[in-house]
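PROTOCOL LOG
Step 1. Enter all chains and additional molecules of the complex.
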Amino acid sequence: MATELVQRKPTPAAPAAAGRSRLREDLIGWSFAAPFVILFGIFLAGPILASFVLSFTSFGLRDLTNPIGTTFVGLQNYIELLGDEKFRKSLLNTAYFVVVGVPLTLILGLLIANALNRGVNKFKTFFRVGYYIPVITSIVAIAVIWRFLLNPDVGLINITLERFGIAGPNWLGDPVLAMPSIIAMAVWRGLGFTMIVFLAGLQSIPTSLYEAASIDGATRWQAFRHVTVPMLRPTILFLTVITTIGYLQLFEEPFVMTGGGPLDSTLSISMYMYQEGFAFFHQGYAAAIAYVLFLLVALVALIQFRLIRSEA
Amino acid sequence: MNQHIQRDPQPRGRLGAATRIAAIMTGAAMLFAACGTNDPSGTRAPGGGASGSPAGSAPDASGAGASGGASPAGDLSGELTVWGMGNEGTLMGSLAEAFMEENPGVTVSITPIAWDQAVTRLQTAIAGGQTPDVSQMGTDMMGQFAETGALEPVPADIDPAQFFESAWNTGIVNDTAYSVPWYVETRLLYYRSDLAEAAGITEPPGTWDELMAMAVAMKEQGGADWGLSLGTKNWQEYLPFLWSNGGDVLDESGQFALNSPQAVEALTYYDSYFEEGLSPNEVPEGFDITPAFVSGTHPMFFSGPWHLGLIEEAGGAEIEGNWAIAPMPQKESATSFVGGSNLVVFNESDNKDAAWAFVNFLSQPETQVMWYEEATVLPAVQAGWDDPALADDENLAVFGAQLEDTRAQPAVSTWNELGEALNASLERLTTGDQDPQAVADEMQAAAEGIGTGQ
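Step 2. Run joint prediction.
Step 3. Record the structure below.
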């Protein structure tokens, strides 16, 4: 009662004062957030919105001098995409890259993390840094170096194979081998990141669980299978989603190493979008491809969340 | 946002990549370009590659006399912004100075632009209304930039007859001339004369059959690994064969004729080098023919004038006298490809008189010779070839003669796409075992699907 009275006393003046101070607080809050909000609005939200509008137009070379005067074509770009064989090919290529690349990156990353966490005691930091360096190296530089490694005549890989009397293939020049070569590189590069995150996950598993398992007579494999993996489920979910999203946007590797060839065997969705948008200047069409890719990423992420959540 | 953890900040650029606005704002376009955007065609010589011939003999290069037919000299004033690409852009300052000496009222400033950014920079400039007054432009870019409506038609007082006809034609889009040729390049046969002699051949090949026979001899008796190295997916190497066989990309009525009997025959001939194992059908990305030519494994190829210098540089005395160049072998005709760069004036320019006067100045024979000596690029003006600096060079004379019979890709706005489609079909022909007729039909269908942008 007493407190209520005390609170009520200044009531008549309160609304205005509170309102004013709230407004003040809001303003202060926004001014702190302003640098981000302004940059986000200009450099991200604006273009995202603009490209969405663009995907319903036939924006091309003719509209350069008068962008506002472009023609709206409704869903035509999207309909055209459905029947576009090259787009279908790029979808399949990207799917191939993701379906093979993501599990490989995760499994190898987990194995290495596990080894570093329990088995290897010497040079731990050395290995950790070693596996992580590719992640922080420029992807273009890596792609250029790998192109040299994979060169059929003077590349390190084929020269090594030659020592053993094996005639190495033209890795990037063969339509069948080009994509696996790119996957190998991407997995090698992606390993470091999954390894670091898995390491963090592994270290957060209480050792008491392993002690309990060994008391129950579990082998090392059983402990791994029934303690480590279930405890890592949130980490696996996170990495699957992040890696898939990253891999769905495959661009630099084929861009630098193969140019999408041979015979379009490494043409990814992003590469095709780039080609349409910047080489041919079909900006409307390219915007439509961008939004299909966006939907795809959102959809795949959603499915992954559902699947892994429901299992858990 | 999470993407960033995994793969650099570029996902942003990727998602927004579809929008021109996004690209301009985020600078994503620059980022892509910095990654080494493919030159869409590769028509241009690698900058400064050719070492060229002795540059001492040009007594008349001062060029103080004849210039500027466009407007009366002297009353020109104001500022001119000029964009030059690649090597030319960095060397162009001397031309600007020479022009300013004659026209003291005009201030010319040169902006050098890298070739791999040229298209994006020009598109951005046009979209933003910030175009230069004058720009260099690759002959294969004319169709798409004329389409934007940002180019000024060439005034009537610039005489087309002074240029190589095929070079002038690269600037004609929908019957209007939008550019003036600046310099040209064409493709010839480079071959190892020592290996040819070892195989009993002393004369350069004059016909298609002789070219084939020579390629076989090079491989069988000359000791080379290959005969003639042709591009597996390069329309610039295929089109000369199509033209020489009496075919063309577009027929007289402007319809595609890529599966004409002449085209099928040309494709069959082209493919036979791959079928017979005379031309490698697997070429590693970034393969350089020059060292392979010097070492003798790849004894013949078609290329432009820049390879004169590259071979000298790579082979030096070791290869001197052991190689030669020859014009395109004859079928119906002996037509080669013409490329190079043109000069355009933008219609947003507020100093068009001075702009055209500058273009006209660059087209004077004396300026052209001076530019050859500076940048080692071939004059587009026929009179420039009479100068001893060019006329006395044996190898250049072969290029000069070939330029009389050259053609270029049609100047349509969709050429980028058409070229890509041709390359894709060529790749299927040369690396697979597709039937030339089927590939020709595929080319035709693809081209009809793309259209000419009309």
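Step 4. Note key features.
Chain A is about 75% helix and 0% strand.
The domain at 83-311 of chain A is CATH 1.10.3720.10 (MetI-like fold).
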